[in-house]
Amino acid sequence: xxxxxxxxxxxxxxxxxxxxxxxxxxxxxxxxxxxxxxxxxxxxxxxxxxxxxxxxxxxxxxxxxxxxxxxxxxxxxxxxxxxxxxxxxxxxxxxxxxxxxxxxxxxxxxxxxxxxxxxxxxxxxxxxxxxxxxxxxxxxxxxxxxxxxxxxxxxxxxxxxxxxxxxxxxxxxxxxxxxxxxxxxxxxxxxxxxxxxxxxxxxxxxxxxxxxxxxxxxxxxxxxxxxxxxxxxxxxxxxxxxxxxxxxxxxxxxxxxxxxxxxxxxxxxxxxxxxxxxxxxxxxxxxxxxxxxxxxxxxxxxxxxxxxxxxxxxxxxxxxxxxxxxxxxxxxxxxxxxxxxxxxxxxxxxxxxxxxxxxxxxxxxxxxxxxxxxxxxxxxxxxxxxxxxxxxxxxxxxxxxxxxxxxxxxxxxxxxxxxxxxxxxxxxxxxxxxxxxxxxxxxxxxxxxxxxxxxxxxxxxxxxxxxxxxxxxxxxxxxxxxxxxxxxxxxxxxxxxxxxxxxxxxxxxxxxxxxxxxxxxxxxxxxxxxxxxxxxxxxxxxxxxxxxxxxxxxxxxxxxxxxxxxxxxxxxxxxxxxxxxxxxxxxxxxxxxxxxxxxxxxxxxxxxxxxxxxxxxxxxxxxxxxxxxxxxxxxxxxxxxxxxxxxxxxxxxxxxxxxxxxxxxxxxxxxxxxxxxxxxxxxxxxxxxxxxxxxxxxxxxxxxxxxxxxxxxxxxxxxxxxxxxxxxxxxxxxxxxxxxxxxxxxxxxxxxxxxxxxxxxxxxxxxxxxxxxxxxxxxxx
Length: 781
What we know:
Layout: H1 3-16, H2 34-37, E1 51-52, E2 59-60, E3 68-72, H3 73-78, H4 84-87, E4 94-100, E5 103-108, E6 120-124, E7 127-129, E8 150-157, H5 161-164, E9 171-177, E10 186-196, E11 201-212, E12 217-228, E13 232-236, E14 245-256, E15 262-275, E16 280-283, E17 304-308, E18 313-328, E19 333-350, H6 352-355, E20 369-388, E21 395-417, E22 429-431, E23 445-447, E24 451-471, E25 476-496, H7 498-503, E26 507-529, E27 532-543, E28 546-547, E29 561-562, E30 565-577, E31 583-595, E32 598-605, E33 608-615, E34 618-630, E35 636-650, E36 669-680, E37 685-696, E38 699-700, H8 705-711, E39 716-717, E40 720-731, E41 734-741, E42 749-752, E43 763-767, E44 772-780
Parallel strand pairs: 6-9, 13-17
Antiparallel strand pairs: 1-2, 3-8, 4-5, 6-7, 8-9, 10-11, 10-44, 11-12, 12-14, 14-15, 15-18, 16-43, 18-19, 19-20, 20-21, 21-24, 22-23, 24-25, 25-26, 26-27, 27-30, 28-29, 30-31, 31-34, 32-33, 34-35, 35-36, 36-37, 37-40, 38-39, 40-41, 41-44, 42-43
């Protein structure tokens, strides 16, 4: 392990900290079963009960002049979709990069260059969730909220900087939760069991109760527990189904509405994710073929394998508390949204492949591995106040202000363990004299820890925004908006332990940054009739920059701050359906111009190569999405969608990207088709059945200079297709359903780790879940 290599790893760990870790209103039943009648991907549905809040006011979908997909809660239950990666196939242009339960990166229209800062914002109702800054690895920790009792999910493609601000330059994913109802007491519950091919058995249970306490006060509470079976075995230290996980939590909401003019809604959400092993297998780096035996001993294994000498795990906890107050003054409605949220992660990572044998630090003769327990804490207080005009046929407007304060911390402890047994070793030691560098006292240096790294950060943002819609005629309107955002950031990094003594980097570094950004949007729309409209949209979004920590011996051009990157989108689209609603189409085309793209770069310093955040020349992305819906007979719905995306990096970047390269995890094509049919068997008995096929084309992994230098090309993940089946019977109030996901057992790969990050020169790759067969039963009163 050379000094230069150790320096790079140290600063990857301490600056990015875990740098090798990658990120409709309920549709009503027209037949019997609401689950069967739900329409997958039916975002072009055009009757009055399909509403969205994309522009922070309730609107019918046809009135929204931008590209948006809506997935109802019924569709999510019908598809047994319980996480981001499950329902990504329902939304054209949406990709999820996931290597572990609780660690996900959301990508829309290919806007991704890697790194630790998100390009898609996540909202729960009107509340932003997740950190706004790269200082707490926010890109890898997108809120993977369990969708049970969610009314719908809205996915807005393209920059949303005017109304939603930071990190929405690629788009927005918005969970709309079900509000308490005043009309009746209701109870719903469901239980299920499933088994995965080559793995274990899991189970789930959930329930929700709605209680009207009076004509003006109602409460709704839900809870869930889900045990997801594992299917990966480990060699090295043998274990089976190591990647099993659990997710559990609940949601409670209290609604007080004493009049049509005034309401207060209080909501609390808690969710815990417990992953007992990583969702990745080891593969040959040249062929991406999964290993079939222990790479060191040759002992054969069975099924999907991962080499490990230390059990790894991931724990993520979400908490969100919010209050929304609305008062209608007549001339305008005042809305105040106050929220406090936390996200905490604890992850154990085997860092041995990156750091190598650390036994020389302890004067030991047998190899030492390195365990890296990492703790990330994100806290977010947010306040938004806005005034919204009443609905009007001539002119509508909205103005508002926003404030957020986000303290964050990453703390890492690197500790030795015995690779042969997985047992932890004493952390204290004494560095032998032959490892000490110039200027260090001649006597051997004692230390308490091998390495500790802590990064504390604070992000504050103030913003003012406004939008307006001018109805030029009854058919033609123009919507425009503007926002100014100003943020200030402060970071403090502390390093300690014997490792940094040898590096000569012991101590504390401080970084600060401040910047303001304007964003805007203009959207003309023409509506031919109640069911046909066309629109165009030009919009700007941004992602905050931030401070870099300047190390000792840094060159003069080392950036103390990296700038915000901005994106301008040019888009046009059409929504249309026939008068009898037997056919509908929703289509859009776009061009995205991404400037000052945030990238990772490397500088030579007196302590070796050091990584830092920087800005590249930019990137571009263009393409289109089409969704078509066919209803040839009552109860039978066919939905097909296809998305094309072409993305290119501008200029070269040191981490392995070259001018013209396709952006990471941005497939050229993804497509899906589904068919669902429900019919009556008798008076109170209905049946439903459906099938779906989804496909995604080849995708490049993250930019990786080491891989490209070794193999002469980027790492490309092959395209794949999946087939899902579902069927069930509803005998009111009971429902029973069966399902098969990934029926053909496709071995699609969704993520690849960095070259050099795994044992024996292998690469870790995440794969879609093998064939899973399950059964659910539920009731509703």
